[in-house]
Amino acid sequence: MASQQTGSAHSGSIFSQKLDRAAFTAYFLGAVVPLAALVALAQRYVLPSLSEGRASLGLIGLLASIGMLSLASFFVLRKTTRQSLGQMDRNNEQLASLLTASGQLAGAHHTRDAAVTAARCSLSLTGARAAFVLSASASGEAPKLLESAGEQAASLYQRFAEPLVEMSLLAMGHGRPALRGPAPRRPAMAVVPLAGDPDPLGALAVIHSSSSDAFAPGEVHALTTLAGLASVALANADLRHAQRNFFSHMTDLLVSALDAHLGYHGGHGTRVAQYANRVGREMRLDDGILQNLHFAAQLHDIGMLKFEKAMQKTTKACEKHAIIGARMLGQIRLWEGVAPIVLHHHEWMDGTGYPEGLAGDAIPLEARIVAVCDAFDSMTSSTSYKVAMPLEAAVQELEEGAGTQFDPDVARVFVDLARRGVIEVLADASG
Description:
12 helices, 5 strands, 63% helix, disordered N terminus
């Protein structure tokens, strides 16, 4: 890090030297050369008409004046150029921060993730000491603190909560930034609204790092842009949460309907999902795969809803329910990734399963996990036509079927979890 900083400082020094040379060259060609020509003309045509003493004094005074003006003009030009380039650098840094924040906000799946990103980016955009995301409350109540950023954020919010809330209500009510300049024992504050449809989602507030400076217009503009990005991210995250909540409850309803329809095997899908979750986490699968695995395990027998109770134990039902279930789920966008798992959960590793006779790694991993968990629960559950197996006997069946019916790696993980006591028989042995 130190070498990077040294390199950056060295580059800045070289750039500064080049800037000075460019400014001097431009000034020399644009001002000094014409002034020198003017002096030459004055010396040739004006000064000869004056007395010798006055001519000498006039020439000295003219040269001194020109020199002082030239030097002063050069430093003014140099300062102006540096200020302009400095502002360009700050604008580029703000743009880079906004682009980074935009990518992070676009990938935020939860409202708190979006709020944390917005608060942290606010600090880099404005150089503020603390940033806060406040969420709007129902019935016109004061907005509540959702997330904050900055080492002193907690103490500063406790100290300035009242003016921050007041400014947040003002910003949300008018739909534009609310600013408050520095005052004795109170730093400057800026609050921008987080737009929503139809009502504001909340506000993004920052407290200046200096007790004497106000926020620059460019900083407020950048903060407003960030608030727009954060508003979209918060709305999308809330929508994703609503979708997850809807499909979670819908899954529960379908599982309950399936349990009632099957009767003889109630709670099977829920138990298979619990086993599958433990195996998936032990295999360190990522969250997206675990989510599909969970839904697929719960709904792997959903195709049985198409068969009357009298047909549930027939060969036709056993062979067709996976295809029917996959078709049912494949029409729902959120469950598109679940459908192939349901379709192939009765495939065997040696290719003798159904419905497509897939073998080995051609069978989706999640389907191989569901197959093991499905078999274990079936073996350890009592029904009207069979007695439940003890855990050790069911584990032995899994070991014997590894490599032919079951994926040997999945079976080994399941057996290990069972023998360590992490997986226990969840079925009611009484049937």
